[in-house]
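REQUEST
  id: r-88c1
  op: predict_structure
  target: DHH family phosphoesterase
  payload:
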Amino acid sequence: MNTRLVLGCGSLGHALIERLRKTPGDIHVITGDEGRVDSLRGENVPAELGAYDDPDVVEEVKTEDVPTVSSVVVAGDDPQRNEQAVETARDLYPRATVVAYVGRDSTDEQRATLAALADRVVDPADIVPQRILQAAGRGGLRLRQLHRIVRDLDGPLAVVMHDNPDPDAIASACALAQIAENAGCPAEPCYYGEISHQENLALVNLLEYDLTNLDSDEDLSRFAGFALVDHSRPGVNDQLPSDTPVDIVVDHHPPREPIEARFVNLRSDIGATSTLLTDYLRRLDVEPSRPVATGLLYGIRIDTKDFRREVSVDDYTAASFLLPYADTATLERVESPSISVDTLETVGRAIKNRDVRGEVLTSCVGRLHARDALAQSADRLLDLRDVTTTLVYGFKDGTIYMSARTRGTDLDVGETLREAFSQIGEAGGHADMAGAQIPLGLLGTVEEDADADLSSVIQDVVTDRFFETLRSRPNWDFVDLYDSGVEELPVGADEE
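RESPONSE
  id: r-88c1
  status: 200
  body:
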């Protein structure tokens, strides 16, 4: 049986191992990356932790575990260490075929040395143009345009998420930043607002994302270009000036108006923007970093509700590509974070203040501490018996925020919120998950510090507009829609 020895497991190594596993023979890996060793062992690939360019380490493995080797693949990222690894392979396995990766930022001299020592040298400078030309026949022209835009920027690219970003927006921004930096353009994933949802905070903290939190009065002149991910218009669901010239837009939400940018990719037939960015990485042959891959996988899972909502074949394909690169152990920690007292109190107020009309539930929770608690409340209330649509809303910092959910109906809550509130604020989203926001100033002279009075005014405006819009929706059956009432909670539930 042939044994293939892999020395080093850098940006090329993991993808190469996946290919080698599909061919007959055994594989044995030596790498100094402890996380990669654990990942490979979890996939039943024999892997040893050690310096892959150290002759003593390689000889020890040869003696104990790999007595015969038919080929050696040197796949580290450091050109100098790769030279030493090739020399070691030649000494220990003189009859083996040696294939060497030149590594990152190698010099002409290092390439020449490797070419003299190895049977074959893998050089990205030769491979990347071939991959781009191959991709041109299947939509690669679009990716070449994207690469050209970021490559030509004379300064950093601001990759802007929507306000108070969710996992799909966060991961997409980090992925586009990696693509830009791979093309030689510095990039910053940026957002306005706050990240308060406990799972989103866990995602950012555990994966150590370097994000830039912009202020509304931030001086943006240091950026040479702007990209929008998971939304499509400056000044709408972000705090950029509305006349900001945009270079790149990547989104999976349907736009209500024409989008102006040098590069636009809008696909509402997929479940997540993370799916689009994964496709870019795959076709550009850019290996996602472990944090980026983990975030993209989580973004797809969240936006498709674990592949149960608005999912497409492309979403499955993207998840399959990401899985070998992702840190699934960290994902488990992200999915089970602690929940704040403020969030639990908001959910409690949503239950207590619920207004149920037929199968539709609305609830005003009053003053908010964290916007993300609205979405969690809307999700929780959707679990109540006989409720198919929820709208939970509250106010914070001069703005009314809303979150809506629906399931098992023909109602498009994204379109419903747009029809109800887009003329007096901002609204949008998907058929089963949407949001909206309205400036409090539109409600007149009610003082914001008078919470009870303000909640009453907000409740009248939001509820009236929402139900009036529902009544006008075609093919929507309302039972007792005009009657307000409070239904019984399921047995065992507690309002307090």
